[in-house]
Design brief:
The complex is a heterodimer of chains A (264) and B (302). By secondary structure, chain A is an all-alpha fold. Chain A has one domain. In chain A, 76% of the residues lie in helices and 0% in strands. With 302 residues, chain B is α/β, with parallel strands linked by helices. Chain B folds into 2 domains: 219 residues, P-loop containing nucleotide triphosphate hydrolases (Rossmann fold), CATH 3.40.50; 77 residues, UreE, C-terminal domain (Alpha-Beta Plaits), CATH 3.30.70.790. A 6-stranded mixed β-sheet of chain B has the order 8-9-10-5-11-12, sandwiched between helices. Chain B has a 4-stranded antiparallel β-sheet with strand order 4-1-6-7, with no helix packed on it. A 4-stranded antiparallel β-sheet of chain B has the order 14-15-13-16, with helices on one face. In chain B, strand 14 and strand 15 form a beta hairpin. In chain B, helix 3 packs across helix 4 and helix 4 packs across helix 5. Chain B is elongated, with a radius of gyration of 25 Å. The mean pLDDT of chain B is 88. Classes of the chains: A mainly alpha (264), B alpha/beta (302). Chains A and B meet through helix 1, helix 4 and helix 5 of A and helix 2 and helix 3 of B.
Protein backbone atom coordinates (compact mmCIF):
# COMPACT_ATOMS: atom_id res chain seq x y z
CA UNK A 1 0.00 0.00 0.00
CA UNK A 2 2.86 2.34 0.81
CA UNK A 3 4.40 1.63 -2.60
CA UNK A 4 1.08 2.41 -4.26
CA UNK A 5 0.66 5.68 -2.38
CA UNK A 6 4.24 6.76 -3.10
CA UNK A 7 3.93 5.93 -6.78
CA UNK A 8 0.61 7.74 -7.02
CA UNK A 9 1.93 10.95 -5.45
CA UNK A 10 4.90 10.76 -7.78
CA UNK A 11 2.54 10.44 -10.78
CA UNK A 12 0.78 13.62 -9.71
CA UNK A 13 4.08 15.38 -9.16
CA UNK A 14 5.47 14.32 -12.53
CA UNK A 15 2.47 15.22 -14.59
CA UNK A 16 1.22 18.36 -12.87
CA UNK A 17 2.87 20.37 -15.63
CA UNK A 18 1.55 18.29 -18.51
CA UNK A 19 -1.41 18.90 -20.76
CA UNK A 20 -3.13 15.65 -19.72
CA UNK A 21 -3.47 16.93 -16.18
CA UNK A 22 -4.53 20.44 -17.08
CA UNK A 23 -6.96 19.22 -19.72
CA UNK A 24 -8.89 17.47 -16.92
CA UNK A 25 -9.51 20.92 -15.45
CA UNK A 26 -9.56 23.17 -18.52
CA UNK A 27 -11.95 21.01 -20.51
CA UNK A 28 -14.90 21.23 -18.07
CA UNK A 29 -14.22 24.90 -17.30
CA UNK A 30 -14.21 25.90 -20.95
CA UNK A 31 -17.15 23.77 -22.04
CA UNK A 32 -19.36 24.64 -19.08
CA UNK A 33 -18.34 28.27 -19.45
CA UNK A 34 -19.31 28.31 -23.12
CA UNK A 35 -22.66 26.68 -22.47
CA UNK A 36 -23.44 29.07 -19.63
CA UNK A 37 -22.50 31.99 -21.82
CA UNK A 38 -24.63 30.66 -24.66
CA UNK A 39 -27.66 30.34 -22.40
CA UNK A 40 -27.07 33.71 -20.81
CA UNK A 41 -26.94 35.49 -24.15
CA UNK A 42 -30.14 33.78 -25.23
CA UNK A 43 -32.27 34.26 -22.11
CA UNK A 44 -35.15 35.89 -23.96
CA UNK A 45 -35.91 32.77 -25.93
CA UNK A 46 -35.61 30.69 -22.74
CA UNK A 47 -38.01 32.96 -20.90
CA UNK A 48 -40.46 32.83 -23.80
CA UNK A 49 -40.40 29.03 -23.78
CA UNK A 50 -40.93 29.14 -20.02
CA UNK A 51 -40.15 25.45 -19.55
CA UNK A 52 -40.47 23.89 -16.11
CA UNK A 53 -37.34 23.40 -13.99
CA UNK A 54 -36.72 19.79 -14.94
CA UNK A 55 -36.90 20.48 -18.67
CA UNK A 56 -34.69 23.53 -18.39
CA UNK A 57 -32.06 21.59 -16.44
CA UNK A 58 -32.37 18.80 -18.98
CA UNK A 59 -31.65 21.14 -21.87
CA UNK A 60 -28.88 22.87 -19.97
CA UNK A 61 -26.97 19.77 -18.84
CA UNK A 62 -27.77 17.94 -22.06
CA UNK A 63 -25.74 20.49 -23.99
CA UNK A 64 -22.61 19.20 -22.26
CA UNK A 65 -23.63 15.59 -21.81
CA UNK A 66 -24.68 15.13 -25.43
CA UNK A 67 -21.34 15.86 -27.06
CA UNK A 68 -19.56 14.48 -24.08
CA UNK A 69 -20.53 10.82 -24.27
CA UNK A 70 -19.94 10.64 -27.97
CA UNK A 71 -16.89 12.75 -28.63
CA UNK A 72 -15.20 14.74 -25.93
CA UNK A 73 -14.95 12.04 -23.31
CA UNK A 74 -13.61 9.25 -25.56
CA UNK A 75 -11.06 11.62 -27.07
CA UNK A 76 -9.96 12.93 -23.72
CA UNK A 77 -9.64 9.39 -22.37
CA UNK A 78 -7.57 8.38 -25.38
CA UNK A 79 -5.26 11.32 -25.07
CA UNK A 80 -4.92 10.98 -21.31
CA UNK A 81 -4.17 7.24 -21.36
CA UNK A 82 -1.52 7.95 -23.98
CA UNK A 83 -0.01 10.78 -22.03
CA UNK A 84 0.26 8.92 -18.72
CA UNK A 85 2.38 6.20 -20.34
CA UNK A 86 4.14 8.40 -22.83
CA UNK A 87 5.80 10.36 -20.04
CA UNK A 88 7.88 7.22 -19.41
CA UNK A 89 8.31 6.16 -23.05
CA UNK A 90 9.46 9.59 -24.14
CA UNK A 91 12.01 10.05 -21.40
CA UNK A 92 13.11 6.42 -21.44
CA UNK A 93 12.33 6.23 -17.74
CA UNK A 94 10.63 2.82 -17.48
CA UNK A 95 13.96 1.35 -16.52
CA UNK A 96 14.58 3.75 -13.64
CA UNK A 97 11.00 3.46 -12.50
CA UNK A 98 11.35 -0.28 -12.17
CA UNK A 99 14.80 -0.06 -10.59
CA UNK A 100 13.30 1.73 -7.58
CA UNK A 101 12.79 -0.25 -4.39
CA UNK A 102 9.06 -0.36 -4.95
CA UNK A 103 6.70 -3.18 -5.70
CA UNK A 104 6.35 -3.56 -9.49
CA UNK A 105 2.62 -4.11 -9.39
CA UNK A 106 2.15 -0.96 -7.29
CA UNK A 107 4.05 1.12 -9.84
CA UNK A 108 1.78 -0.17 -12.58
CA UNK A 109 -1.41 0.08 -10.53
CA UNK A 110 -0.54 3.65 -9.54
CA UNK A 111 -0.31 4.63 -13.21
CA UNK A 112 -3.66 3.09 -13.97
CA UNK A 113 -5.23 4.56 -10.89
CA UNK A 114 -3.84 7.95 -11.78
CA UNK A 115 -5.52 7.78 -15.18
CA UNK A 116 -8.79 6.82 -13.48
CA UNK A 117 -8.43 9.69 -11.02
CA UNK A 118 -7.91 12.19 -13.84
CA UNK A 119 -11.14 10.96 -15.34
CA UNK A 120 -12.89 11.34 -11.98
CA UNK A 121 -11.54 14.88 -11.62
CA UNK A 122 -12.67 15.80 -15.11
CA UNK A 123 -16.18 14.40 -14.74
CA UNK A 124 -16.67 15.75 -11.20
CA UNK A 125 -15.78 19.18 -12.45
CA UNK A 126 -18.31 18.85 -15.25
CA UNK A 127 -20.95 17.89 -12.70
CA UNK A 128 -20.05 20.63 -10.27
CA UNK A 129 -19.71 23.35 -12.86
CA UNK A 130 -22.95 22.44 -14.60
CA UNK A 131 -24.90 22.76 -11.36
CA UNK A 132 -23.01 25.82 -10.16
CA UNK A 133 -23.33 27.68 -13.45
CA UNK A 134 -27.05 26.79 -13.63
CA UNK A 135 -27.66 28.40 -10.26
CA UNK A 136 -25.49 31.33 -11.28
CA UNK A 137 -27.72 31.90 -14.30
CA UNK A 138 -30.70 31.77 -11.93
CA UNK A 139 -29.15 34.55 -9.87
CA UNK A 140 -28.36 36.62 -12.96
CA UNK A 141 -31.78 36.06 -14.53
CA UNK A 142 -34.23 35.56 -11.63
CA UNK A 143 -37.13 34.70 -13.93
CA UNK A 144 -35.53 31.41 -15.05
CA UNK A 145 -36.89 28.18 -13.60
CA UNK A 146 -33.63 26.52 -12.52
CA UNK A 147 -34.71 26.98 -8.92
CA UNK A 148 -37.78 24.80 -9.36
CA UNK A 149 -35.88 21.56 -9.63
CA UNK A 150 -32.83 20.17 -7.84
CA UNK A 151 -30.81 18.30 -10.49
CA UNK A 152 -28.02 17.05 -8.18
CA UNK A 153 -29.09 13.42 -7.90
CA UNK A 154 -30.08 13.15 -11.55
CA UNK A 155 -26.83 14.61 -12.84
CA UNK A 156 -24.76 12.69 -10.33
CA UNK A 157 -26.26 9.47 -11.60
CA UNK A 158 -25.70 10.46 -15.24
CA UNK A 159 -22.08 11.36 -14.68
CA UNK A 160 -21.46 8.24 -12.59
CA UNK A 161 -22.82 6.16 -15.43
CA UNK A 162 -20.67 7.99 -17.90
CA UNK A 163 -17.62 7.42 -15.74
CA UNK A 164 -18.23 3.70 -15.39
CA UNK A 165 -19.02 3.39 -19.09
CA UNK A 166 -15.75 5.00 -20.11
CA UNK A 167 -13.54 2.71 -18.00
CA UNK A 168 -13.61 0.20 -20.86
CA UNK A 169 -12.18 2.69 -23.36
CA UNK A 170 -9.69 3.90 -20.79
CA UNK A 171 -8.38 0.38 -20.26
CA UNK A 172 -8.12 -0.44 -23.95
CA UNK A 173 -6.28 2.79 -24.65
CA UNK A 174 -4.11 2.38 -21.56
CA UNK A 175 -2.89 -1.03 -22.67
CA UNK A 176 -2.35 0.15 -26.26
CA UNK A 177 -0.26 3.07 -25.05
CA UNK A 178 1.68 0.74 -22.80
CA UNK A 179 2.62 -1.48 -25.72
CA UNK A 180 3.44 1.22 -28.24
CA UNK A 181 5.48 4.26 -27.52
CA UNK A 182 4.37 6.19 -30.59
CA UNK A 183 1.35 8.42 -30.84
CA UNK A 184 -0.16 7.11 -34.05
CA UNK A 185 -0.92 3.49 -33.23
CA UNK A 186 -3.03 3.95 -30.09
CA UNK A 187 -4.61 7.09 -31.53
CA UNK A 188 -5.37 5.44 -34.86
CA UNK A 189 -6.96 2.42 -33.27
CA UNK A 190 -8.83 4.63 -30.81
CA UNK A 191 -10.12 6.85 -33.58
CA UNK A 192 -11.43 3.92 -35.57
CA UNK A 193 -12.92 2.53 -32.37
CA UNK A 194 -14.75 5.73 -31.57
CA UNK A 195 -16.21 6.01 -35.08
CA UNK A 196 -17.27 2.37 -34.95
CA UNK A 197 -18.74 3.00 -31.50
CA UNK A 198 -20.77 5.97 -32.64
CA UNK A 199 -22.07 4.20 -35.74
CA UNK A 200 -23.00 0.96 -34.04
CA UNK A 201 -24.66 2.76 -31.15
CA UNK A 202 -26.65 5.02 -33.44
CA UNK A 203 -27.87 2.40 -35.88
CA UNK A 204 -28.98 0.44 -32.85
CA UNK A 205 -27.01 -2.74 -33.55
CA UNK A 206 -28.06 -5.10 -30.81
CA UNK A 207 -24.49 -6.12 -29.92
CA UNK A 208 -23.14 -2.57 -29.91
CA UNK A 209 -22.73 -2.71 -26.15
CA UNK A 210 -19.91 -5.23 -26.63
CA UNK A 211 -17.72 -2.52 -28.19
CA UNK A 212 -16.29 -0.45 -25.35
CA UNK A 213 -16.23 2.66 -27.55
CA UNK A 214 -20.00 2.71 -27.84
CA UNK A 215 -20.64 2.25 -24.12
CA UNK A 216 -20.62 5.95 -23.12
CA UNK A 217 -23.15 6.77 -25.84
CA UNK A 218 -25.36 3.85 -24.85
CA UNK A 219 -25.04 4.63 -21.16
CA UNK A 220 -26.69 8.01 -21.62
CA UNK A 221 -29.79 6.53 -23.24
CA UNK A 222 -32.03 6.25 -20.30
CA UNK A 223 -35.51 4.94 -20.72
CA UNK A 224 -37.92 6.21 -18.18
CA UNK A 225 -39.64 3.47 -16.28
CA UNK A 226 -43.37 4.00 -16.32
CA UNK A 227 -44.76 5.85 -13.31
CA UNK A 228 -41.31 6.22 -11.79
CA UNK A 229 -39.44 9.42 -11.13
CA UNK A 230 -36.84 10.39 -13.72
CA UNK A 231 -34.03 9.96 -11.18
CA UNK A 232 -34.85 6.34 -10.67
CA UNK A 233 -33.10 4.89 -13.69
CA UNK A 234 -30.66 2.04 -13.01
CA UNK A 235 -26.93 2.73 -13.14
CA UNK A 236 -25.65 -0.79 -13.64
CA UNK A 237 -27.04 -1.60 -17.04
CA UNK A 238 -25.69 -4.07 -19.60
CA UNK A 239 -23.15 -1.70 -21.18
CA UNK A 240 -21.80 -0.68 -17.77
CA UNK A 241 -21.08 -4.30 -16.90
CA UNK A 242 -19.35 -4.76 -20.24
CA UNK A 243 -17.24 -1.68 -19.66
CA UNK A 244 -16.28 -2.86 -16.17
CA UNK A 245 -15.43 -6.32 -17.46
CA UNK A 246 -13.14 -4.83 -20.10
CA UNK A 247 -11.50 -2.70 -17.43
CA UNK A 248 -10.92 -5.60 -15.04
CA UNK A 249 -9.51 -7.95 -17.67
CA UNK A 250 -7.30 -5.37 -19.37
CA UNK A 251 -5.98 -4.08 -16.06
CA UNK A 252 -4.58 -7.55 -15.37
CA UNK A 253 -3.44 -8.08 -18.97
CA UNK A 254 -1.61 -4.74 -18.87
CA UNK A 255 0.41 -5.83 -15.88
CA UNK A 256 1.53 -8.99 -17.61
CA UNK A 257 2.46 -7.07 -20.73
CA UNK A 258 4.51 -4.66 -18.70
CA UNK A 259 6.28 -7.29 -16.62
CA UNK A 260 7.09 -9.38 -19.69
CA UNK A 261 8.20 -6.36 -21.64
CA UNK A 262 11.96 -6.23 -22.02
CA UNK A 263 12.94 -3.02 -20.41
CA UNK A 264 15.44 -1.79 -22.93
CA UNK B 1 28.18 -12.88 5.52
CA UNK B 2 29.64 -12.60 2.06
CA UNK B 3 32.49 -10.23 1.35
CA UNK B 4 31.16 -9.48 -2.06
CA UNK B 5 28.82 -6.64 -2.82
CA UNK B 6 27.89 -8.41 -6.03
CA UNK B 7 28.39 -12.03 -6.84
CA UNK B 8 27.06 -13.86 -9.85
CA UNK B 9 27.43 -17.60 -10.12
CA UNK B 10 27.57 -19.02 -13.64
CA UNK B 11 25.06 -16.46 -14.86
CA UNK B 12 23.53 -17.06 -18.26
CA UNK B 13 21.16 -14.80 -20.10
CA UNK B 14 19.50 -15.19 -23.49
CA UNK B 15 17.55 -12.87 -25.76
CA UNK B 16 15.69 -15.48 -27.76
CA UNK B 17 18.34 -17.83 -29.17
CA UNK B 18 21.09 -15.30 -28.74
CA UNK B 19 23.25 -15.79 -25.66
CA UNK B 20 24.10 -12.36 -24.30
CA UNK B 21 25.72 -13.37 -21.04
CA UNK B 22 27.49 -16.70 -20.77
CA UNK B 23 28.58 -18.40 -17.57
CA UNK B 24 29.42 -15.08 -15.97
CA UNK B 25 30.88 -15.21 -12.48
CA UNK B 26 31.40 -11.68 -11.28
CA UNK B 27 32.87 -11.07 -7.86
CA UNK B 28 32.78 -7.46 -6.78
CA UNK B 29 34.40 -7.05 -3.37
CA UNK B 30 32.87 -4.61 -0.90
CA UNK B 31 34.62 -1.24 -0.90
CA UNK B 32 36.10 -1.65 -4.34
CA UNK B 33 35.83 0.32 -7.52
CA UNK B 34 35.21 -2.45 -9.95
CA UNK B 35 35.95 -1.53 -13.54
CA UNK B 36 33.67 -3.54 -15.79
CA UNK B 37 35.31 -3.43 -19.16
CA UNK B 38 34.38 -4.60 -22.57
CA UNK B 39 33.81 -3.40 -26.11
CA UNK B 40 30.40 -2.14 -27.17
CA UNK B 41 27.86 -4.93 -27.25
CA UNK B 42 29.86 -7.18 -24.93
CA UNK B 43 26.98 -7.58 -22.49
CA UNK B 44 27.87 -4.90 -19.94
CA UNK B 45 24.54 -3.10 -19.97
CA UNK B 46 22.64 -6.38 -20.00
CA UNK B 47 24.57 -7.49 -16.93
CA UNK B 48 23.81 -4.22 -15.15
CA UNK B 49 20.13 -4.60 -16.01
CA UNK B 50 20.17 -8.10 -14.59
CA UNK B 51 21.77 -6.75 -11.41
CA UNK B 52 18.90 -4.26 -11.14
CA UNK B 53 16.35 -6.99 -11.76
CA UNK B 54 15.13 -5.15 -14.85
CA UNK B 55 15.86 -8.37 -16.69
CA UNK B 56 14.84 -11.49 -14.86
CA UNK B 57 17.79 -13.66 -13.86
CA UNK B 58 17.52 -17.39 -13.18
CA UNK B 59 17.26 -18.11 -9.45
CA UNK B 60 20.38 -18.57 -7.36
CA UNK B 61 22.71 -16.98 -9.88
CA UNK B 62 22.79 -13.36 -8.73
CA UNK B 63 23.59 -12.27 -5.19
CA UNK B 64 23.70 -8.71 -3.93
CA UNK B 65 25.34 -8.33 -0.52
CA UNK B 66 25.05 -12.07 -0.18
CA UNK B 67 21.31 -12.17 -0.80
CA UNK B 68 19.62 -13.82 -3.74
CA UNK B 69 18.32 -11.01 -5.96
CA UNK B 70 14.96 -12.37 -7.14
CA UNK B 71 13.87 -13.28 -3.64
CA UNK B 72 15.08 -9.98 -2.15
CA UNK B 73 14.33 -7.56 -4.96
CA UNK B 74 13.12 -4.58 -2.97
CA UNK B 75 15.62 -4.97 -0.12
CA UNK B 76 18.47 -5.23 -2.63
CA UNK B 77 17.32 -2.28 -4.73
CA UNK B 78 17.21 -0.15 -1.58
CA UNK B 79 20.95 -0.59 -1.26
CA UNK B 80 21.69 0.20 -4.91
CA UNK B 81 21.80 3.33 -6.99
CA UNK B 82 22.20 3.18 -10.73
CA UNK B 83 22.85 5.11 -13.87
CA UNK B 84 21.99 2.94 -16.86
CA UNK B 85 22.90 4.06 -20.39
CA UNK B 86 21.65 7.58 -21.03
CA UNK B 87 20.38 9.08 -17.82
CA UNK B 88 16.63 8.71 -17.54
CA UNK B 89 15.36 12.20 -16.86
CA UNK B 90 11.92 13.78 -17.17
CA UNK B 91 12.57 16.45 -19.77
CA UNK B 92 9.56 18.59 -18.82
CA UNK B 93 10.65 18.84 -15.19
CA UNK B 94 13.54 20.94 -13.91
CA UNK B 95 16.70 19.34 -12.59
CA UNK B 96 15.55 19.96 -9.07
CA UNK B 97 12.08 18.55 -9.69
CA UNK B 98 13.65 15.40 -11.09
CA UNK B 99 15.52 14.98 -7.85
CA UNK B 100 12.49 15.80 -5.70
CA UNK B 101 10.49 13.21 -7.60
CA UNK B 102 13.15 10.62 -6.84
CA UNK B 103 13.10 11.64 -3.16
CA UNK B 104 9.37 10.95 -3.15
CA UNK B 105 9.86 7.52 -4.68
CA UNK B 106 12.57 6.66 -2.19
CA UNK B 107 10.68 8.13 0.74
CA UNK B 108 13.51 10.43 1.77
CA UNK B 109 13.70 14.08 2.76
CA UNK B 110 13.28 16.43 -0.21
CA UNK B 111 16.07 18.70 1.03
CA UNK B 112 18.47 16.00 -0.06
CA UNK B 113 17.95 17.28 -3.60
CA UNK B 114 19.75 20.56 -2.84
CA UNK B 115 22.68 18.69 -1.40
CA UNK B 116 22.93 16.59 -4.56
CA UNK B 117 22.66 19.62 -6.84
CA UNK B 118 25.68 21.20 -5.21
CA UNK B 119 27.56 17.89 -5.20
CA UNK B 120 27.31 17.60 -8.98
CA UNK B 121 27.59 21.33 -9.62
CA UNK B 122 24.09 21.97 -10.94
CA UNK B 123 22.94 24.56 -8.41
CA UNK B 124 22.68 27.32 -11.00
CA UNK B 125 20.79 25.12 -13.42
CA UNK B 126 18.48 23.72 -10.72
CA UNK B 127 15.39 25.48 -12.03
CA UNK B 128 16.07 24.99 -15.70
CA UNK B 129 14.14 22.31 -17.55
CA UNK B 130 16.21 19.15 -17.68
CA UNK B 131 15.33 18.74 -21.36
CA UNK B 132 17.36 21.88 -22.06
CA UNK B 133 20.45 20.56 -20.27
CA UNK B 134 23.61 19.76 -22.21
CA UNK B 135 24.67 16.14 -22.42
CA UNK B 136 27.21 16.65 -19.66
CA UNK B 137 24.65 18.27 -17.38
CA UNK B 138 22.23 15.43 -17.98
CA UNK B 139 24.94 12.98 -17.08
CA UNK B 140 25.61 14.86 -13.84
CA UNK B 141 21.94 14.90 -13.01
CA UNK B 142 21.86 11.16 -13.70
CA UNK B 143 24.70 10.66 -11.25
CA UNK B 144 22.93 12.84 -8.67
CA UNK B 145 19.81 10.69 -9.11
CA UNK B 146 21.86 7.55 -8.56
CA UNK B 147 23.46 8.98 -5.43
CA UNK B 148 20.46 10.61 -3.83
CA UNK B 149 19.31 7.59 -1.86
CA UNK B 150 22.78 7.26 -0.34
CA UNK B 151 23.13 3.69 -1.64
CA UNK B 152 25.92 1.38 -0.51
CA UNK B 153 26.40 0.08 -4.01
CA UNK B 154 26.51 2.18 -7.14
CA UNK B 155 26.13 0.80 -10.63
CA UNK B 156 27.36 3.31 -13.16
CA UNK B 157 27.08 2.46 -16.83
CA UNK B 158 29.60 4.59 -18.73
CA UNK B 159 29.17 7.58 -16.40
CA UNK B 160 31.68 9.80 -18.14
CA UNK B 161 29.96 9.47 -21.49
CA UNK B 162 29.60 12.92 -23.01
CA UNK B 163 31.53 14.72 -20.32
CA UNK B 164 34.39 17.09 -21.08
CA UNK B 165 37.86 16.38 -19.63
CA UNK B 166 37.11 18.49 -16.57
CA UNK B 167 33.89 16.66 -15.95
CA UNK B 168 35.63 13.32 -16.37
CA UNK B 169 38.19 14.24 -13.74
CA UNK B 170 35.44 15.41 -11.38
CA UNK B 171 33.55 12.15 -11.71
CA UNK B 172 36.74 10.20 -11.20
CA UNK B 173 37.53 12.11 -8.01
CA UNK B 174 33.97 11.75 -6.82
CA UNK B 175 34.14 7.98 -7.26
CA UNK B 176 37.40 7.76 -5.33
CA UNK B 177 35.98 9.94 -2.57
CA UNK B 178 32.81 7.87 -2.30
CA UNK B 179 34.79 4.69 -1.87
CA UNK B 180 37.57 5.91 0.39
CA UNK B 181 35.61 8.32 2.59
CA UNK B 182 32.13 6.87 2.56
CA UNK B 183 32.88 3.18 2.20
CA UNK B 184 30.74 2.67 -0.90
CA UNK B 185 31.22 0.03 -3.55
CA UNK B 186 31.11 1.08 -7.18
CA UNK B 187 30.74 -0.97 -10.30
CA UNK B 188 31.59 1.20 -13.25
CA UNK B 189 31.41 0.03 -16.81
CA UNK B 190 33.37 1.41 -19.69
CA UNK B 191 34.79 0.48 -23.04
CA UNK B 192 37.87 2.58 -22.41
CA UNK B 193 40.50 1.00 -20.27
CA UNK B 194 42.48 4.21 -19.83
CA UNK B 195 39.53 5.69 -18.03
CA UNK B 196 39.18 2.80 -15.59
CA UNK B 197 42.92 2.39 -15.00
CA UNK B 198 43.10 5.59 -12.97
CA UNK B 199 40.39 4.74 -10.50
CA UNK B 200 39.58 1.05 -10.41
CA UNK B 201 40.89 -1.28 -7.75
CA UNK B 202 39.48 -4.34 -9.48
CA UNK B 203 38.85 -5.12 -13.10
CA UNK B 204 36.61 -7.51 -14.95
CA UNK B 205 36.93 -7.79 -18.71
CA UNK B 206 33.98 -9.10 -20.66
CA UNK B 207 33.62 -9.83 -24.34
CA UNK B 208 30.75 -11.53 -26.16
CA UNK B 209 29.12 -12.22 -22.82
CA UNK B 210 32.06 -14.03 -21.32
CA UNK B 211 34.33 -12.90 -18.53
CA UNK B 212 37.90 -13.08 -19.84
CA UNK B 213 39.74 -11.66 -16.90
CA UNK B 214 38.91 -10.79 -13.34
CA UNK B 215 41.25 -9.61 -10.63
CA UNK B 216 42.90 -6.59 -9.07
CA UNK B 217 44.37 -3.90 -11.26
CA UNK B 218 47.80 -5.16 -10.14
CA UNK B 219 47.02 -8.63 -11.43
CA UNK B 220 46.14 -7.15 -14.77
CA UNK B 221 49.34 -5.13 -14.95
CA UNK B 222 51.50 -8.11 -14.05
CA UNK B 223 50.06 -9.92 -17.03
CA UNK B 224 52.00 -7.60 -19.24
CA UNK B 225 55.73 -8.35 -19.05
CA UNK B 226 58.05 -5.45 -19.77
CA UNK B 227 60.25 -5.96 -22.80
CA UNK B 228 63.24 -4.44 -24.50
CA UNK B 229 63.38 -3.47 -28.11
CA UNK B 230 66.83 -3.67 -29.72
CA UNK B 231 67.74 -2.05 -33.01
CA UNK B 232 71.01 -3.12 -34.61
CA UNK B 233 72.73 -3.41 -38.01
CA UNK B 234 72.69 -7.22 -38.25
CA UNK B 235 69.57 -8.52 -36.66
CA UNK B 236 70.07 -12.19 -37.57
CA UNK B 237 73.47 -12.23 -35.97
CA UNK B 238 72.19 -10.29 -32.97
CA UNK B 239 69.36 -12.75 -32.47
CA UNK B 240 71.83 -15.67 -32.44
CA UNK B 241 74.09 -13.98 -29.96
CA UNK B 242 71.18 -13.04 -27.70
CA UNK B 243 69.76 -16.54 -27.81
CA UNK B 244 73.10 -18.12 -26.87
CA UNK B 245 73.52 -15.55 -24.11
CA UNK B 246 70.28 -16.83 -22.61
CA UNK B 247 67.87 -13.97 -23.47
CA UNK B 248 64.29 -14.82 -24.27
CA UNK B 249 63.65 -13.53 -27.80
CA UNK B 250 60.01 -12.69 -28.29
CA UNK B 251 59.97 -11.23 -31.74
CA UNK B 252 62.15 -10.29 -34.67
CA UNK B 253 60.20 -8.21 -37.12
CA UNK B 254 63.14 -7.40 -39.41
CA UNK B 255 63.56 -3.93 -37.97
CA UNK B 256 64.09 -4.71 -34.32
CA UNK B 257 64.25 -7.57 -31.86
CA UNK B 258 62.11 -7.73 -28.76
CA UNK B 259 63.36 -9.60 -25.72
CA UNK B 260 62.07 -10.03 -22.18
CA UNK B 261 63.42 -7.42 -19.78
CA UNK B 262 65.10 -8.99 -16.78
CA UNK B 263 66.98 -6.14 -15.14
CA UNK B 264 69.44 -3.33 -15.72
CA UNK B 265 72.63 -5.37 -15.21
CA UNK B 266 71.38 -8.05 -17.50
CA UNK B 267 70.72 -5.45 -20.21
CA UNK B 268 74.24 -4.05 -19.79
CA UNK B 269 75.80 -7.50 -20.19
CA UNK B 270 73.72 -8.28 -23.26
CA UNK B 271 74.69 -4.95 -24.82
CA UNK B 272 78.43 -5.56 -24.25
CA UNK B 273 78.13 -9.08 -25.63
CA UNK B 274 76.50 -7.76 -28.79
CA UNK B 275 79.13 -5.06 -29.26
CA UNK B 276 82.02 -7.46 -28.54
CA UNK B 277 80.71 -9.79 -31.23
CA UNK B 278 80.74 -7.08 -33.85
CA UNK B 279 77.10 -5.97 -33.85
CA UNK B 280 76.47 -2.24 -34.02
CA UNK B 281 73.67 -1.49 -31.59
CA UNK B 282 71.58 1.54 -32.60
CA UNK B 283 69.24 1.57 -29.66
CA UNK B 284 68.09 -0.36 -26.63
CA UNK B 285 64.71 0.71 -25.32
CA UNK B 286 62.57 -0.66 -22.57
CA UNK B 287 58.89 -0.92 -23.44
CA UNK B 288 55.86 -1.79 -21.44
CA UNK B 289 52.84 -3.15 -23.15
CA UNK B 290 50.22 -0.75 -21.96
CA UNK B 291 46.91 -1.90 -20.62
CA UNK B 292 45.21 -0.68 -23.74
CA UNK B 293 47.06 -3.23 -25.85
CA UNK B 294 46.59 -5.86 -23.21
CA UNK B 295 42.90 -5.20 -23.27
CA UNK B 296 42.82 -5.50 -27.05
CA UNK B 297 44.79 -8.73 -26.82
CA UNK B 298 42.47 -10.20 -24.26
CA UNK B 299 39.29 -9.17 -25.99
CA UNK B 300 40.37 -10.20 -29.47
CA UNK B 301 41.38 -13.69 -28.37
CA UNK B 302 37.87 -15.08 -28.26
Amino acid sequence: MRSLYISLTSEFYKSRKTLAFWAAIILPVVICGLIAFGFYSDTERLLKANSPGLILWGRYSGAALGVMGMLILPFYVMFMAFSVNNIEHKNDTWKTLFAQPLNKFSIYAAKYLYAVLLLVICLSLFLLLTIASGYLLQVLVPKLTFKDYNPTLLLFKFYSKLFLASLGILSVQFVLSLIWSDFLKPMGIGFVGIIAGIITANVGWKHAYLIPYSDPTLALRVTRVKDAKLEEFPIFTQEIWVSLAYAAVLFIVGYFILSKKNIK
Amino acid sequence: MSNFAIETVGLNYHFGNQTVVKDLSLQVPKGSIYGFLGPNGAGKTTTIKILLNLLQSPTDQVFVFGKELNANRIASLKRMGALVEQPAIYAHLTGKENLVNRCMLLGINKNKSNEMLSLVGLVEAANKKAGKYSLGMKQRLGIALALIGDPELLLLDEPTNGLDPNGIIEIRNLMIELVTKHGKTILVSSHLLAEIERTATHVGIINKGQLLFQGTIGDLQSLSKPLVKIEADDLALAQNILATAGAEVLQNDGKSISIVYKGKEDMGILNSTLVQNGVTVYSLAQERKDLENLFLDITSKN
